[in-house]
Design goal:
The protein is an alpha+beta fold. It has 9 helices and 19 strands. It binds adenosine-5'-triphosphate.
């Protein structure tokens, strides 16, 4: 495994690093009849790692490209540290971007790729060489400086792309599915390393991905989007435990939908009465749908039980069962040592 190094980046001041505050205000971007961004408003704190998550076509990439200055807005403002950048050219926004396709210059070796932005900023060759060297060391590639992109693995190329994005000391780091093209092992490794580096440099970061595991493990907060607007902005744990809408509950994590009846701020699920949290339930009585997390359902083998196990998948520490109860099918996670004793077709009580 390649380790990232604790090398400090050359900084013009000795101040501890502090990221920029980003404010996206009522962004609207249409393409013909499609409202890719439909009044999106989002505040990102200095040094925060914000993930944009949502189904394909919900506007994540458009939001990132608008922030970078690659897309124009129909209306709304992009503010960074209180300054309106909406009409500022992408090159002058001081943002570093890493794409899914590594997008390195094929005719430049690693060190020259990293130094590219510094050359554009007319830094001396000595500063360029020193800084590119430091950054390559930071991403664990000091020994690969002379290699060209085609001589490096996908993970190494993406590290070079990250070093290149950081070289200009960007005010905001934009990551557009940077791990999607990598295999699972490299992805997990690079995920941790990007997060460590981002925290160490305290750089405000916006990350777009489809991968929920990436989002939940990396982000300070997640912005869940649907059709160009925001459904919820919250920490990963809050999103999972207290989704504000059915869309978020179903999109983040796994859940099973069970029809229930709500009476007196309680709901009956599989014969068991559960309280409905006050605040969430004030307007709800009568028929509703409950969304149940697989780890929140307990089952017991019982020959008289109304449910029976129709599927069983071993996931390592946990085993996921699909249990049919009448017309409802629910997913249930049990510890694998418990799951190994439950046969397919067993009758169970939930
Ligand atoms: P994905 O996860 O599939 O990349 P996304 O959430 O990033 O999707 P966007 O790429 O932002 O979504 O697209 C949002 C909507 O805007 C989609 O309906 C898309 O088809 C449309 N769109 C994006 N760019 C253009 C364009 N250049 N011309 C026309 N329509 C576009």
């Amino acid at each position: 495994m390649t380790q990232m190094k604790e090398t400090p980046m050359t900084n013009s001041t000795s101040q501890p690093p502090q990221g920029a505050a980003v404010s996206l205000e009522n962004l609207v971007r249409t393409y013909g009849s499609v409202r890719a961004l439909d009044g999106l408003t989002l505040k990102i704190d200095p040094g925060e790692f914000m993930a944009l998550l949502g189904p394909s076509g919900c506007g994540k990439t458009t939001a990132l490209r608008v922030l970078a200055g690659f897309e124009l807005l129909d209306s709304g403002r992009v503010m960074v540290d209180g300054v309106d950048l909406s009409d500022v050219n992408a090159r002058k926004r001081d943002m570093g971007m890493v794409f899914q396709s590594y997008s390195l210059f094929p005719n430049m070796n690693a060190v020259n790729n990293v130094a590219f932005g510094l050359r554009m900023r007319k830094q001396s060759s000595e500063v360029r060489r020193k800084k590119a060297g430091e950054l390559l060391e930071m991403v664990g590639l000091a020994d690969q400086a002379a290699k060209y992109p085609h001589q490096m693995s996908g993970g190494q190329q993406q590290r070079v792309a990250l070093a290149r994005a950081l070289a200009i000391e960007p005010r905001v780091l934009l990551l557009d599915e940077p791990l999607s093209a990598l295999d699972a092992m490299v992805r997990a490794e690079l995920r941790d390393q990007i997060r460590q580096l981002q925290q160490r440099l305290a750089i405000t970061t916006v990350f777009v991905t489809h991968d929920q595991e990436e989002v939940l493990s990396m982000a300070d907060r997640v912005c869940v989007m649907s059709r160009g607007h925001i459904e919820q902005v919250a920490t990963p744990a809050e999103l999972y435990a207290r989704p504000k809408t059915a869309f978020v509950a179903q999109f983040v994590g796994i859940s099973s939908r069970v029809p229930v009846v709500v009476t007196d701020h309680e709901v009956e699920v599989f014969g068991q009465r559960c309280p409905v949290r006050s605040g969430d339930s004030s307007a709800v009585t009568g028929a509703a749908d409950a969304l149940l997390r697989p780890e929140d359902i307990a089952i017991e083998v019982d020959p008289d039980g109304k449910g029976f196990v129709t599927r069983k998948s071993f996931l390592g520490a946990m085993t996921r069962l699909v249990v049919q109860i009448g017309e409802i099918s629910v997913r249930v996670d049990v510890r694998s040592d418990v799951g190994s004793d439950i046969e397919l077709g067993s009758h169970v009580r939930a």
